[in-house]
Amino acid sequence: MDVPVRKFLPLKVMPEPGDKLAAVPFYALPANIAERGVFTRLKIKPVTALVNASSGAAEIIEEEIVPAEYSGLPAGIKTAPVKLSRAEAEGAAVAAASASSPRGWKRGLCRTDIFLISAERDALALRLYIIRGPQLIDSFTGESGEAASLIEFII
């Protein structure tokens, strides 16, 4: 699937001149999570399901995330290929939310369901990784690690 992606997940860390950049496509799917139980009322929280479009890994972020375009980023960003369709990404998001829901007899005490919101906007965005010297920085979360040489080797 060769889809041009122009938007990025929000950047907490901006790249500096001389940084190497790598990007991974993600589906940012707006959703609502409904939590209910025997002793609690129904609670509905707006969330965003982030699904890696290359590997299919999904995570639920408890805030609304809107991908945006950023000017001033260099054009030569190495990008991983998109391997999942939007329908497959929605399935991965539902699986990630249901994995945290209790099983068996505990299911009656507390239950979590996810309801994806069908948005008209394009949900595909890039998660930018910055390679700065020996560090690999996730610009979305701001976390850094020491695996930059491995990432450079892979891409």
Describe it.
The chain contains two helices and eight strands, in the order ββββαββββα. It has a domain at 24-123. A hairpin with a 5-residue loop joins strand 7 (135-138) and strand 8 (144-145). The chain has helices at 86-99, 148-154; strands at 20-37, 43-52, 58-61, 78-79, 110-116, 124-132, 135-138, 144-145. With 155 residues, it is mainly beta. Strands 1, 2, 3, 4, 5, 6, 7 and 8 form an eight-stranded mixed beta sheet that branches. The longest helix has 14 residues, at 86-99.
Q: What structural class is derived from the secondary structure elements?
A: mainly beta
* Count of helical regions: 2
**Could you report the average pLDDT, rounded to the nearest whole number?**
81
Distance separating the two termini: 18 Å
Total beta strand runs: 8
Structural shape = elongated
**Largest sheet entry:** 8 strands, mixed
Our estimate of the beta-strand percent is 35-45%
Low confidence ranges: none
Radius of gyration: 18 Å
Helix content estimate: 10-25%
Order of helices and strands: EEEEHEEEEH
Features:
mainly beta, 36% strand, single chain
Set out the fold topology:
Layout: E1 20-37, E2 43-52, E3 58-61, E4 78-79, H1 86-99, E5 110-116, E6 124-132, E7 135-138, E8 144-145, H2 148-154
Parallel strand pairs: 1-4
Antiparallel strand pairs: 1-2, 1-5, 1-6, 2-3, 6-7, 7-8
